[in-house]
Structures are given as C-alpha cells and as structure tokens.
Amino acid sequence: MKGWEDFEDEQNALAKAKKIMETLTDEPPFSDRGVIKRLKHRFVVMSTEYFTAGLMKDIVEFAGEEAAAAILYRGGYHSGKAIFRRYKELTGNDDMAIDLCTASAWYFGWGIVTIKVEKREHELIGHARIYKSFEAASYKNTQEFKNEKKCHFLRGVITGIMAEYAGKPYKGEEIMCTGEGAPYCEFVLMPLDIEEPILPL
Fold it and tell me: How far is 131 from 38, CA to CA, in rounded Å?
C-alpha cells in the first residue's frame, strides 16, 4: 500500500481505473471522465441489488420497516417535486413537464411510466403505472421483501410530481406491484385531505 504522499494524480488514477475495468467487461463506460452528466446535471449509476432493496434492509435493521418505508418515500417525494420543477422551468408548461418526467424515467432506466390526471369533484386525482419498475425488480431477488408492495421511493417520486403539478400536498398509494406478480406497478395519487383511495375508473 502506498503512503499518503504517493497518491496517484487524477490522470494516472483514471488510466488505472480504465485498464482494470477493461479486464472485467468490454462494455463502454458511462463516461470517460469519471463524471456522468445528462441534461446539465450530474448522475450516478448504482446497482439495483443495493438501491433500493439493500438500502431498505439496512434502514429496517437500524430503525424498523415503517421508518425505512417513510424515509424512502420522503426522499422520493422531494426528488419528484424537484424533477417536476426542473422540467416546468425548462418548458413553462405543466403538461409538458409531466411528459418530460415520464420520458426521463425511461431515459434513466427507472421504468416505463404513464401518468393520467383527472378532475373529480373539484380535485385533481392522479393515476400512474410503471412498467419494469427498477425498484420492484430490486426487491424481487431478496428473501426479506419479495412478493410485497415495496415501491416506496418511486411512490414518493410519482406523488411529488403530482403535488408540484397540482400545487398542493398529495399522498400516494401503491395498489398493484410487479413484486406481487402484477404486470405493472400502479399508484393512486390524491390530496392529503381525502380519506379513502380513489381507484381508477
């Protein structure tokens, strides 16, 4: 092991990393510079073995399942709000921002997402479907969480998008999940003051 004073500089460390990875795979790197940038933002790639199933397991061991679900949901909620705001600023149009949110989910490998919004008794109600959810796939290969509805992070993202679109706090409920054998994950999104979930027509 080299001493602290013998650290490689950035270029040498990069060249070494490339050489090592070439022995493992012939797939091209996401970036030659060690930084992945898309749409003017920096991104990271993480295996679904850890995010979200592994992270969920770690939080459950530390704080319990209810807290783990809440943490992932809250993180997703704030992410969804930020994603919608970014695309709203870009387009100036709420509906186009929703379309960009769903298209970017496909682009970044989160899944194939559809969101429908309808007005019922003066309230906007959202319904979303995610085909090939990365989160449900993450849980499918675990003993602890398989065969359960567990898309807490994506439920939060979709709900945050809806909250920003409607301009008020929303809550989301997952009513179907590929983790339970369904063909897609489905969510109902409603204002916080509505007591019962409103199912799709």
Answer: 23
